């Protein structure tokens, strides 16, 4: 895991490499703490294809305060991290026979778990929790369930949860999209200034079908937009601009440009309107109760400290990006 801290002008303050000898570790997300330090999540894998989930707290200088490694014996990992008050929430998965979605709440000060639940939609599916975000009175998060039928059809379900700070589920909504064989691979959630939600997702197959969906405070649909614009497209970044609209980032791969990737940024108004995108009501979320939420216990939690390499020589700060054609 390589982490670089810069100042406001992009000048590097420090760079650290966190890892273990002969073990592949992939960083997933990082969040900043109120004391100037950071917490990041990562997943490690060894030669047996077994993977473990890692969470690490570092101070403002990049030095490790504590590390926790979570192992359930097979393929385990974290996908998302969020800070809410004095707690940190982590969303991911653990595997026994199939993948099960995992949501964990931990104390920032020492990493001790205070909430640990397993989320399973159906026993014959793989489940992952893929995005967790703080809200005004708790958190929101998403679940992706998927399986392959005997005829080799890929079936996926995307469910959006709103959970109160006491751990009770306020509502759960399943994405009901009209595209045949829609297989969502990404979900990102942001709370809006009126306590509603904006959600983006995209399909794992071409042409991508990137969607933006707006829901009210109780999870009721207000509008949905297809951001594809006749190109192969993905959406991966979302931000709320005060009360005037949203920024949505992604990329396209169009036959019109010789299948060259282009970074895209959509600036929408509060109703999701943006030029050259399809209007209409896409990506409806509907009520669902088909979910099992039960207690979960990791087989092993270790406190192994990750070695730090401070002799990192990062590449030039100029990536050579061009804004031509954007």
Written description of the protein model:
By secondary structure, this protein is mainly beta. Helices cover 0% and strands 58% of the residues. The protein contains no helices and 25 strands. The strands form 6 sheets. Strands 3-4-5-6-24 form a 5-stranded antiparallel beta sheet, with no helix packed on it. A 5-stranded antiparallel beta sheet has the order 7-8-9-10-23, with no helix packed on it. Strand 20 and strand 21 form a beta hairpin. 34% of the residues are buried. The C terminus is likely disordered.
Number of helices: 0
Shape: globular
Pick out the low-confidence regions: 278-283, 314-326
From the N-terminal CA to the C-terminal CA, the straight-line distance is 31 Å
Helix and strand content put the structural class at mainly beta
Which helices and strands occur, and which strands form pairs?
Layout: E1 2-6, E2 12-18, E3 24-32, E4 38-45, E5 51-58, E6 64-71, E7 77-84, E8 87-95, E9 99-107, E10 113-120, E11 126-135, E12 138-148, E13 154-164, E14 169-176, E15 184-191, E16 197-203, E17 211-215, E18 221-226, E19 232-241, E20 245-254, E21 260-269, E22 284-287, E23 292-295, E24 300-302, E25 308-309
Antiparallel strand pairs: 1-2, 2-25, 3-4, 4-5, 5-6, 6-24, 7-8, 8-9, 9-10, 10-23, 11-12, 12-13, 13-14, 14-22, 15-16, 16-17, 17-18, 19-20, 20-21
């Amino acid at each position: 895991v390589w982490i670089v801290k810069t100042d406001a002008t992009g000048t590097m303050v420090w760079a650290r490499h966190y890892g273990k000898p002969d073990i592949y570790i992939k960083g997933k997300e990082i969040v900043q703490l109120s004391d100037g330090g950071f917490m990041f999540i990562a997943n490690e894998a060894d030669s047996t294809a077994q993977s473990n989930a890692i969470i690490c707290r570092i101070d403002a200088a990049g030095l490790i305060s504590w590390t926790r490694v979570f192992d359930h014996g097979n393929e385990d990992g974290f996908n998302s991290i969020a800070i809410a008050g004095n707690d940190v929430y982590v969303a991911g998965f653990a595997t026994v026979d199939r993948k099960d979605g995992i949501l964990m709440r931990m104390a920032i000060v020492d990493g001790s778990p205070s909430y640990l639940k397993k989320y399973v939609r159906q026993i014959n599916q793989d489940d992952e929790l893929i995005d967790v975000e703080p809200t005004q009175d708790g958190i929101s998060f998403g679940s992706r369930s998927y399986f392959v039928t005997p005829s080799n059809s890929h079936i996926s379900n995307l469910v959006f949860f709103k959970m109160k700070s006491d751990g009770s589920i306020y509502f759960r909504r399943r994405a009901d999209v009209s595209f045949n064989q829609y297989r969502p691979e990404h979900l990102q959630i942001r709370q809006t200034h009126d306590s509603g939600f904006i959600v983006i997702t995209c399909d794992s197959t071409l042409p991508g079908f990137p969607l933006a969906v707006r829901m009210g405070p109780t999870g009721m649909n207000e509008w949905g937009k297809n951001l594809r614009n006749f190109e192969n497209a993905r959406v991966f970044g979302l931000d709320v601009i005060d009360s005037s609209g949203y920024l949505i980032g992604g990329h396209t791969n169009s036959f019109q440009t010789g299948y060259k990737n282009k970074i895209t940024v959509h600036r929408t108004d509060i109703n999701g309107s943006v030029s050259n995108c399809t209007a209409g009501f896409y990506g409806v979320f509907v009520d669902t109760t088909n979910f099992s939420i039960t207690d979960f216990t990791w087989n092993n939690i270790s406190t192994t400290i990750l070695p730090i390499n401070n002799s990192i020589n990062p590449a030039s700060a100029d990536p050579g990006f061009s804004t031509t054609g954007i």
